Amino acid sequence: MFRNVVIRLQQGHRTIGFPKGEPTMLDRFRGRPVVDQSKCPARCRDCAEACPTDAIRIDTKGLRLDLGRCLFCTDCVEACPEQAIRYTQDFRLAARKRDDLILGGEGLKLADALDKKTRRLFGRSLKLRQVSAGGCNGCEADVNVLSTVVFDLGRFGIQMVASPRHADGLLITGPVTENMRMALKKAYDAVPAPRIVIAVGACAIAGGPYINHPEQHNGADNVVPVDLYIPGCPPHPLTILDGLLRLLGRLEDASSRK
Amino acid sequence: MTLPLHNGELLNRAKIPHQNVTDFRQQVIARVHDGARVAGLFGLPGNGSAPVLAVLANGASGMLELVGTEISGEYPSLTPDVPQVHWFEREIAEQCGVTPQGHPWLKPVRFAKSLRHGHDAWRLAADDQPLIGVASFYRVEGEEVHEVAVGPVHAGVIEPGHFRFQCHGEDVLHLEISLGYQHRGVERALLGGPDKRTIHYMETLAGDTTVGHAIAYCQAIEALAGCKPPARAQVLRGIALELERLANHTGDLGALAGDVGYLPTQSFCGRLRGDFLNMTALVCGSRFGRGLVRPGGTGIDVDETRIGQLRERLEQALRDVTGAVNLLWNTSSVRGRFERTGALTAETARETGLVGVPARACGLEQDVRHEFPSGIYQFVQIPVSTYHTGDVFARAYVRWLEIQRSMAFVDEQLNALPAGPVRTTVGPLAKDAAVVALVEGWRGEICHVAMTDKTGRFARYKVVDPSFHNWFGLALALRNQQISDFPLCNKSFNLSYCGHDL
Whole-prediction pTM value? Predict the structure, then answer.
């Protein structure tokens, strides 16, 4: 017992200050990408061709980057002859609509909070059932991390529960494999209404690296309606936490940030 | 006759001996009898008969052996003679549509479409696939015997799989594990590669083993392209691989503590796992090492300041992990649950072909870093960590031994990072060539086999995640255990669903 207390003191206090304080991200962290289109040489398509998931589209309207498809790899950055693409440290990426994830001329439209009525229900207590439906277990790992002392999801009244019947919504990872489609549908149907659905990671948003494979369904919203999209491969735990809090209207800065 | 080769050695496909099925079977049986393990046994997509290839690993001599055959329709199953190939033979039946006759439990492993159009061991129509989970399950009959079915959706934040327990009261008589829910068609998509997606497939075969699988892939590509990554890159890869091991082993020890209700170590290790992931992120920007390992070397370099920061973090983590983990061994209620739970014998481990921590926890001295070293491990030895009891305690304790040795390795290598570039250019791949690449990932032996066609594209890219060998070991560990010990046993293996399902 004495030893336990000594070790406990040694381990220290580890819960991060977010959302009250601004977290410091590691310098090489790849957050929201930005493209300086003024640097793009005419007719250059190098980044679009290098992108493994065809997240970059170039047409008459210019260059558009689909954050939902983006793996946050560096293939486009390395392919660009003019260093027009770079990753920022901004970990805030969650959006309410699929189209909001497509970055064109304007900045990213971050997720709005749920409507007032739903927020009254879930704002201070949100129980989620996680369904893993394909993918690589990377997103699951960084969702799990939210329950550690570092992020301490419980302090926001958010909890992962064991049954869809105990849940207010689903948190889905993976592209939804054909082999998981029915199980996901059944889990969704088992959640009592009103319910929300959160798609976490490139797979659950658009199929990720497996996009257009016949063995999967290119993301959760092809099987169930989705209320919140959290991009990344996998998203940083802070990106997920930020998305959840934004949805619940628990961030003061919800509309002020771009 | 078999073809001997080293880990990562380039060879001409024409040199792989192809024998008739009878001789092929005899070769495999004889080699396994002499102490070799089956690292891989798989079919190639093609028309006509299906070429099948066996990769045998002989730890004592440090050599691999290849032998092949052609199978059309049916062949006498190897499983009755070599039990460790039972899962491989099910996979061959599923992917190539050939039937191993006399296989004791022939059913799909992933419930996926065949890789050979129109050839299907289940006699389905050409474009059909077997319905997931719909198959006969092993069943114990009798009064007071009941069946517990779990999954695919589990209670925790965890991947999907289906488990059927045959129970008598609280005691588990038999557990059958049925997977395939994570099947997303990676091996099929790899055919005709490499292309711009290939490295990303490799990094997501099992997300928690990004570095391990990426190194195996790069070793294969580098052999096929005839290039050698610079020394600095080799060391960086080793550091990344051990950081991956540190993060996962630490996380597992925390989770094991959680499964017996010992919260201090659970919460300390949960945080410490993140600290190791953040060390990888300090190196490359991604907690899972995405973008770190690239064909020809590494995608990033580290300067002196970064090395200093890493060493500082490592030193702090070593102190904290030591404190957190030693609590486990000093707490009798924890040891009471760990000891004698889910025990396997060395003989069972050997016969069923277990790899990694579960094998070493039975006393088998099996470790790719030691037996088939490649990269930095050719120059730096990491002692093999074993324990002899084969139970949950042994699997936990081996992890702790490995944590200490990986820490020492990373610390030493950060001090001795050779100067120079981190990446070399990779040319076109050799045509009609093959290579076997083995890496000791944190779960155990990762085996990649790349075979190119006459244009230098992948005619087959076989991935064997360590979980493929070990899932059956978990089923055996549960025999005659209380069903309430399942989470504990499961966590002590901590196998990958996606790495298995591909």
Answer: 0.97
